[in-house]
Amino acid sequence: MTANTSDVLPSTSGMPKKAVQITPTPNSDFWDISERFGTYISGAIRHDGSAVIFDSKGNSLDIEGDAQEIYAGSGVVAVLQSDQSIDIVSHPHANTDFGRYRSTITPENPNASLSSIALSRGAVAATYDDGTLEYGGDRWLVGSPPQELISAGNVDKVVGAGFGFIALQDNGVVTPWSGAQKFINAYMYNADDYIYGQDNSLKVTDIGFLGSALWATRDDGSIAFTGGSQSIQNQAEHPINTFDWNGQNDDLEISRVWPVMTSNDSAFLVERSDGYLANVSTRYSGITELSTDWGVDDKGEPITLTDAYGGGQLLLLSDGSVRDSTSPGNILYKPENSDSARPVDIVGHKHSYGILLDDGTLVGGNA
Fold first, then answer.
1. Phi, psi of 140 (to 5 degrees)
2. What is the dihedral of CA 343, 348, 350, 353, to 10 degrees?
3. pLDDT for residue 123
4. What is the pLDDT of residue 338?
5. What are the backbone dihedrals phi and psi of residue 91, each rounded to the nearest 5 degrees, phi first?
6. Helix/strand/coil (H/E/C) assignment for every residue in 28-80
7. Which pLDDT score, from 0 to 100, does residue 189 have?
8. Which of 172, 173, 189, 193 is nearest to 181 (CA)?
9. 193 vs 236: CA distance, rounded Å
């Protein structure tokens, strides 16, 4: 569950100063609700499987069913039901009548399961494990996917991208669509010239999007980035695309990518199979290597990265500690011993965060 914590100055070791700890009441309704917050409208799943969509003006509507998950984005909320259908409530503008735009995505194959979902400007696009692409919601701004993409029946993944979407097919081809061509030009400028390699022989294996930039891993273990740069017309020559991501012997590969929270950039935290960790900026600083010297745990084993949260700013490590990615010595939480509670979820960023522990305690900090 998403929780908001108060601002507390983090310490450089151990527990944060003025730590806020909240212990939930067992079996309370509060902890039975899954909430998601978007622009203009938000939603929550009740413990009985129904969902409620609401706005800041006090309007609300109920969606019956057996809701499994809820997603919220810019002007849209999507509710995934147990039969893999998706109920959509769009509210793309602040002056839109609440509840006016409602639609439902229903997979043609009753045995298909959702494989990816993306939200953008009042619209929803979803892929299923049989390769089908479905879409719904208010599509005035984002347009509709090309018919050949729908007919292909081989779409693996879809991501939201500004005023549109980007799809990845199982043959490694990346296809964007939008209601406005200028947005595609902004984040896919000359992308076909380099995301498939210099000789067009590489296959894209995964994609992600943040701000105005796309990342695309490839079957040689490398990664490419598009968009984001306002000063380099040929993004292929940007240092982040000329860096030897798969190593001198071409035997390394990108293992994980996380979006990084910034105020004026499109950036990513990239981990390589050899443990190399770097912040990647698509506009300004290029590549900044991060220290992974976190020492050893109480068993003498090297501490490694488990996952990243908070826009790539909060690192959960194998010893159960949570650290600031920009300052490895800044420990936001650390179990005192092997019997101490360990993190199960983390929200926020390095200046304002909440850490949910496996004993139900919530630890919060803020600078």
1. -60, -40
2. -60
3. 92
4. 87
5. -145, 70
6. CHHHHCEEEECECEEEEECCCCCEEEEECCCCEEEECCCEEEEEEEECEEEEE
7. 78
8. 189
9. 8
Q: Which phi and psi (to 5°) does residue 363 adopt?
A: -105, 125
**Mean pLDDT of each 10-residue bin along the chain, 367 residues long:** 32 36 34 47 91 88 94 90 96 71 93 95 94 91 92 95 92 92 78 90 94 91 81 74 94 93 78 94 84 91 94 92 85 92 90 92 82
Tokens of 128: 């299923």
The strand pair at 41-45 and 86-90 is best described as unpaired
Q: What is the pLDDT of residue 242?
A: 92
CA 111 vs. chain centroid, Å, equals 27
CA distance 270 to 323: 17
pTM for this model (two decimals): 0.82
Contact 359, 333 (CB under 8 A): no
> Which residues pair with residue 74 across a beta bridge?
39
SS3 label, residue 134: strand
Listed residue (139, 162, 136, 41) closest to 94, CA to CA: 41
pLDDT at residue 326, as a whole number: 77
What is the rounded distance in angstroms from the CA atom of residue 81 to the CA atom of residue 316? 31
Residue 39: per-residue pLDDT: 57
Query: How far is the C-alpha of 137 from the C-alpha of 74, rounded, in Å?
Result: 12
**Rounded Cα–Cα distance for residues 43 and 168 (Å):** 28
Say if CB 175 and CB 166 are below 8 A apart: yes
Angle in degrees, CA 70, 73, 78, rounded to 5? 35
